[in-house]
# Entry
Amino acid sequence: MPVDIDIAHVARLARLDLTEDELEAYKSQLSVILDHAARVQSLEGDPHVESAHPLGLVNVYREDEVRPSLDREEVLAQAPESVDGFFVAPPALDNP
Amino acid sequence: MTAYEPVIGIEVHVELSTDSKMFCGCAVTFGEQPNTSICPVCLGLPGALPVPNRKAIEWITEIGLALDCEVSERSVFHRKNYFYADLPKNYQISQYDIPVCHDGHLDVTVDGFTRRIGIERAHMEEDTGKSTHLGDGGRIHSAQSTLLDFNRSGVPLVEIVSKPDIQSAAEARAYAHELRALVAELGVSDARLEEGSIRFDANVSVRPEGNDELGTKIEIKNMNSFRSLERAIDFEIRRQIQVLEAGGELLQETRHWDEGTDVTHSMRTKEGSSDYRYFTEPDLAPMVMDRAWVDEIAARIPELPAQRRARYIAAGLDASLAGVLSDSEPLLRSVFDEALAAGASPKGAANWLTGEVTAHMRRNEDSELSLTGAQLAELIALVEEGTVSSSAAKEVLEGVLTGEGDPAAVAESRDLIQISDTSALEAVVDEVLADNPDAVQSYAAGEKKAVGFLVGQVMTKTQGKADPRIVNALLGARLDR
Amino acid sequence: MSFLTDLNIVEAGELLRSGEVTAVGLLEAVFDRAHKTEAQLHAFLTLDYGGARAAAEAADDHLAAGIDQGPLQGIPVALKDNMCTRGVETTAASQILAGYQPPYDATVVTRLRDAGAVIVGKTNLDEFAMGSSTENSGYGTSFNPWDISRVPGGSSGGSAAAVAIGSAFTALGSDTGGSIRQPASLSGIVGLKPTYGTVSRYGLIAFASSLDQIGPLSKTVTDAALTLETIWGHDPLDATSYAGPYPDPASGLDLGVSGMKVGVVTELSGEGYEPEVEAAVARMIDQLAKAGAEIVELSLPTFEIALSAYYLIAPAECSANLARFDGIRYGHRAEGATTEALMARTRAEGFGPEVTRRILLGTYALSAGYYDAFYGQAQRVRAAIQEDFARAYESVDVLVSPTSPTVAFKAGDRVDDPLAMYLSDICTIPSNLSGHPAMSVPIGVDAQGLPIGFQVMAPALGESTMFRVAAEVERLAAFAAKPQLAEVVS
# Structure
């Protein structure tokens, strides 16, 4: 039943820089949990479920009106690094 | 040697010109100071929630209807998960398997041949922030750091994906051009390539002619003009064929068009293809587009470029002139319609507007136009009646455009009215013939060109106001006697 | 002073309006209580005396001017630290948000302020609300006032402990899989999760978007109703917010249960349930029958796999909700030569093991090739659970069960066994999956003096019915015990 989890790949997808030991530990924990979670496969049912909202909301919108933005200084005060109104980050390795 | 055929699809991203962003009330701006149009939602702060802009949904529906798409009765948003510094939540709210619009088409004409290009889908999503790469000429791979501006984050974005029906670079360019014109006509986007409010990516593959199977699909990005779109696709087709003919293999990858060196470069590939882990956006409700709402939106669609061109052609313009007029400023086009209503000849009106009037506006860098359709019709009539010569008409037009008055009045005040009185002209013609016996002799001896000199003499004697048609007829009659 | 902190909101409100106490007086009593108990309980991450004092003075001014802002005016309130408070540190009990000050208030915070409530501080929780004991907090666990070697429950453990000991008159928590009700049950107070969509999530640091709801932890059923009415209502900033009409929970509190049909869920009993818990619940059901209710035994078979569905849906949504914590715009930033390296290192340093575990689980469940079998299938189970509930409510007005299979367990007992920890939520999870309201009422203590909670579940927007039954349970239980904690001046 349990599938072999490529835990290193999952950690990469999730941007989590974990050690080999940590990866091993998480892999076995995940196996145990997924074993239990796989019980969901015992249910037969309709393939597509769209919204779980108990009150069946549809068509919730806002009108196209401009509202005040945040004060840039207050926002940048929380930034680890900023310059001249920009957030600063290291260079990217890849394009998305 | 195998003959190859290209298979091309175009993906277009259109930034909608709504007042506020897709999921929050921040203003949609252009060129403002960085990070001045931001809020918890478009900045991806903890605890923020999206609420969709109703107008954006109406506008994407309008785009879809204009492209003859089906509008999904029920559609939902999905989260597209990937990490990138300019994507604040590290997921983009987009659409996956149930887009707002799907299965439409756009007719595209190249060299007189019209083909129908299928449209796979048009879906709604949000734009990302902007990264500027500092250090080493702004190229990503040697940058020292990245500067991030989130003003653009959250701007409503419509993605339109064509079916792989396009068969040449020229056709791709025509498709892009037509789609841009359509979107601009709807008034839902500035649709300016140079500003980035419309962006084109191409998917190019080649296969042996007659094959059904598709070749390796390669994505081309960074084409910032219609010209570079065509050239990039042209280059890529040739490149792919070269590789295959040399026995090589093509990698499914994304390539970057380099305008400076006229080649596509491979962008460094990530390990494996992207796993976006799409799932239905739990923060948003499904969208139900009922018949009444869709019909209301459909009623707002103005005359589209293709329809307009067809109307012009039906009025008697050839395809080329119809195209030029259709692409011209809305002001000029409305004068055209007015002129037709006032009884002007369509060809005449179109030629004047796309020629002299456009030239005038460009010379004077004018966006205003002091010319009504009625005035244009009057001018054309003056020329047809012979009241004003066609060259004098240009001067008359100039006078009208600078506000001197109606054409007849301008012709009068500028003394441009032709002499059409045959008997008066006869006298002048006889005078000229008498004064220039050598020319008469030359003509009689076979030099037919000599009549030109004689016409010139009549024009000089009448200060250019003689109707050249009458002069020619009179001279001809006398000389050929 | 401790007399004041033993009062409930209604009693305190009367004294405020009669002039016998001031809001500042209430605040001083609460802070005094907090200072004497925090060393043992660690219920709070932040105590904001300055902000609270200003709010108390404003409330007093309004009272003096004859302006009645409602039942929460002048009342000291605590907030779980996953709700954004402008300018006040908000961490979600995670190191990744150490020092983070939001530039905006959550909607519920704005509503509390507008009602004249006095926000005393931010309470401890399991990191990002993931857990059932508060032991997953990145800042150290909280402890149960009834026995400080035990957990107060989680994830809203700090809020539960604060209300139980009197360091707040009422508190807000969030409930995704039982995180309000279970700690309320383990700490001997009232706690409820309202119908999904009735309380705005704008400003609540998201864990699982389709499951999270904010709700009150209070001393009495009436207090809970008053708190709920202050914070709920349509919010245009939350697209999952219900536009109305809203029920009136405070209106039916004295109606009793005569003629009502009460369903007992057979799946929520048996193995794993402590005998004293089951006995106490059974006794209360008998009392309800004597008070005029008709008791019906019901089977909701999908409840057997509810936990499984939850542990696929919640982690999947959380893996996306927590992606924004990347060290770029706010919060902790690690070293990194490239954005990718910086993000990965920041997240590894900032997140604790439970959060990491759930992000990995969620990412896996959504990934290519596994979506259908895991996340997709879990959503189907969820739909089936909603159908089971709908069928049940055709024949009963409410469903009842224990809130938690056990009383408060010892700190450290379950930290190494994630699955055992997850089983704490087996009674509460179904109503998160259905979006229905549910609340916990304390009905007694076991032989060790540890509180037992009784859960009442109702259909969507059935808060009036739910409160009506809960009020009767409260009356019948006559639960007057208080935690005996020796005050230690810290």
